[in-house]
Amino acid sequence: GQSYEIRMLDNRKLGELPEINGKLVKSIFRVVFHDRRLQYTEHQQLEGWRWNRPGDRILDIDIPMSVGIIDPRANPTQLNTVEFLWDPSKRTSVFIQVHCISTEFTLRKHGGEKGVPFRVQIDTFRENESGEYTEHLHSASCQIKVFK
């Protein structure tokens, strides 16, 4: 539930991708498993989590703390995903909250487990001619572990 800041920066070189100047881009944040073994069973793992925590989400945006994000959305069926639009020419910071802990996905839950590493993955897209954000611009990720 703690809020963590991720700064969104336009890191294009001068003259690169001039077609997005003055336009919004869409970024999609996902919390996924870092371990390959858990990636194969991600759908079952997330369904099990949903069953144990009805109504809860794995990932949220702390909207009051965030700066420069437009139209933030959280799809009710994708508990580990949030998305928003932003202007690369303006200061943008998104504060995310992860509502699950790394030990919720370990086999033995007696306390003192190592906990599984997660990965925050950010994919950014630009608009195509039809007005849909489908043209991939950039991906980034980092490993996290969440403990109480």
From TrEMBL:
Coiled coil regions in record: none
Annotated Pfam families: CP2 (PF04516)
Keyword Oxidoreductase belongs to the record: no
GO cellular component: nucleus
Keyword Nucleus annotated: yes
Keywords: DNA-binding, Nucleus
Superkingdom of the source species: Eukaryota
InterPro entries: CP2, TF_CP2-like
Domain Grh/CP2 DB positions: 1-148
Subcellular location: Nucleus
MF-aspect GO terms: DNA-binding transcription activator activity, RNA polymerase II-specific; RNA polymerase II cis-regulatory region sequence-specific DNA binding
Protein known as: TFCP2 factor
